[in-house]
């Protein structure tokens, strides 16, 4: 069929034509926005799950929903070795420009002056200008060099400006498990203080399944600050809808047996559904999509996943790290004891510590519990078992 009208879109963070099965997360975010906008406190939201389940897509939808309400929103990604300070500052720039209108109130001017000081905290040659006179404005002071103090001051003043406009401030952080520990502590402290003051501020954090544990280690009260939502595989009914609904919009139907075949092969993972859907569309001769089309599409899709989704992760590992990943594959995707891995490799657990740490740093594995490691992507164990020594 026509590749231009292919409605399936496998890719990192690319929104699917039909976002299904995530009603609970979207409702939690909508309630948080509406409560904050009404001057009430609200739990911020944490999304956690394996790679390829659609966390980034959800976070982007969260940001879109906030902006549709006129909110100030900053969407950033946590990266090992990178500062959240720079990311938040730059992500806010466009909204700050929109704030800077002639005749704005004192709280908006205060927020803009504070934003300039925050910019100076990470860019001494900062060139932001907003076209309004800030000489007599209050604000500033977000350039102490202490991350929690500076970001807290910025968000507090921005929340005041947002209140003047009847909206709020949303900060959304993807890959939050990669944030330095002190930044996680700072975020928890900032949102906790904002809740106590009933500032118009709400956070959304997304990351691997280890994120809730890391937040709990950062602050003992983190379980009460956030509403936690696991983003896992789609139920069969939702997975089927993710396949058929986009095709129906293009006037194309699916045979029931073809849908069932792909739903089973994808085991509910949105990325796999998009990949198999895209490749099945490519080989199908027309409507309806048949079971034979689905078989060919799954074969082509699996090859594409092996050469891309899985391969780029496998190739990042050293020879020693690949041995470690192979030892994990014995247990499938459920997770492996560090002691069992060491025994299979004929080494002591302590000797394998650096290998394990490197794999975690590369985002290939994570630790769901003390002494346990698991792959960060679904079906990785099967891929690893297919690799020759």
List the helices and strands and how they pair.
Elements: H1 23-37, E1 44-48, H2 55-68, E2 72-77, H3 84-91, H4 93-99, H5 106-122, H6 147-164, E3 169-174, H7 181-197, E4 201-207, H8 211-218, H9 222-225, E5 226-230, H10 236-249, H11 256-266, H12 270-283, H13 291-314, H14 319-329, E6 336-337, H15 338-345, H16 353-361, E7 365-369, E8 372-375, H17 380-386
Parallel strand pairs: 1-4, 1-5, 2-3, 3-4
Antiparallel strand pairs: 6-8, 7-8
Helix pairs in contact: 1-2, 3-5, 5-6, 6-7, 10-11, 11-12, 11-13, 12-13, 14-15, 14-17
Outline:
The protein is about 55% helix and about 10% strand.
Number of strands: 8
Which parts are unreliable, with pLDDT below 50 for 5 consecutive residues or more? Answer: none
CATH architectural name of the largest domain: 3-Layer(aba) Sandwich
Annotation field: number of helices: 17
Order of helices and strands: HEHEHHHHEHEHHEHHHHHEHHEEH
Shape summary: globular
- Distance separating the two termini: 40 Å
- For the largest sheet, list the strands in their spatial order: 2-3-4-1-5
Structural class: alpha/beta
CATH level 3 topology of the largest domain: Rossmann fold
**How much is the radius of gyration in Å?**
23 Å
Number of domains: 3
**What number is the mean pLDDT?**
93
Largest β sheet strand count, sense and barrel closure? 5 strands, parallel
Share of helical residues? 40-55%
- What is the name of the CATH superfamily of the largest domain? P-loop containing nucleotide triphosphate hydrolases
| CATH hierarchy, class of the largest domain | Alpha Beta
Fraction of residues in β-strands: 5-15%
